[in-house]
């Protein structure tokens, strides 16, 4: 048998490595899965009074972040994430929730809690189920990153409040509007709702209002399924009266 010399052997070894590498690339294997981009989510946590020094936790489709609100309830968190994100703000006996559909301003108020109740009704789940499903449920993810779905849900909540309490909220974009506690506009809306009994002492929407929001969402289910583009409806107007 004729033995291969060193140069020939090295050439064959290099060729084998090259072929193996080419096959791996062709099959789509190897490489990094990529990382989520870093961006900022900020906003105001308030229930009428600001949630001063509240602990704010953001749990997203991919990535988590946290922040501590200042004395006016303003928070800001910069971290790597893919939306949507569930937002939980806690201060003393008060814990309220919201969502972020991407980077930008996203408030945490009793109105955003109502928004989640409406969306949960549309999606056939509960608020806790909706928030816990953000990281894995494609239907929830699609809905909560769809600007039309969110805008329609906000409008439905505003209409529901007007029907039940005769109160006209200053902005239908209460999820994203910038505001400062103690000033006219979104914060004054919260004060008015609290005086009317629509917001309880623990910062939660009144039970009857929450139930009406869920029922209105259930009456306007989101179409599109888990892989489509949900459109959602504008929802019902809810019942009458001044529930507490």
Label this structure with key terms:
Carboxypeptidase regulatory-like domain-containing protein, 3-stranded mixed β-sheet, disordered N terminus, 7 strands, 244 residues, Immunoglobulin-like
Q: Can you put this structure into words, describing what you see?
A:
With 244 residues, this protein is of the alpha+beta class. It has one domain: Carboxypeptidase-like, regulatory domain (Immunoglobulin-like, Sandwich), CATH 2.60.40.1120. It is 36% helix and 19% strand. The strands form two sheets. Strands 3-2-5-6 form a four-stranded antiparallel β-sheet. The chain has a three-stranded mixed β-sheet with strand order 4-1-7, with no helix packed on it. The chain is globular and about 45 Å long. The N and C termini lie far apart (96 Å). The N terminus and C terminus are likely disordered. One of its GO terms (molecular function) is carboxypeptidase activity. Keywords: Carboxypeptidase, Hydrolase, Protease. It comes from Paraburkholderia elongata.
**Helix-and-strand structural type:** alpha+beta
Q: Biggest β-sheet, characterized?
A: 4 strands, antiparallel
Let me know the CATH homologous superfamily.
Answer: Carboxypeptidase-like, regulatory domain
List the strand order in the largest sheet.
3-2-5-6
- Mean pLDDT, to the nearest integer, reads 83
User: What's the total number of strands?
Assistant: 7
Taken as a percent bin, the fraction of beta residues is 15-25%
CATH T-level fold name: Immunoglobulin-like
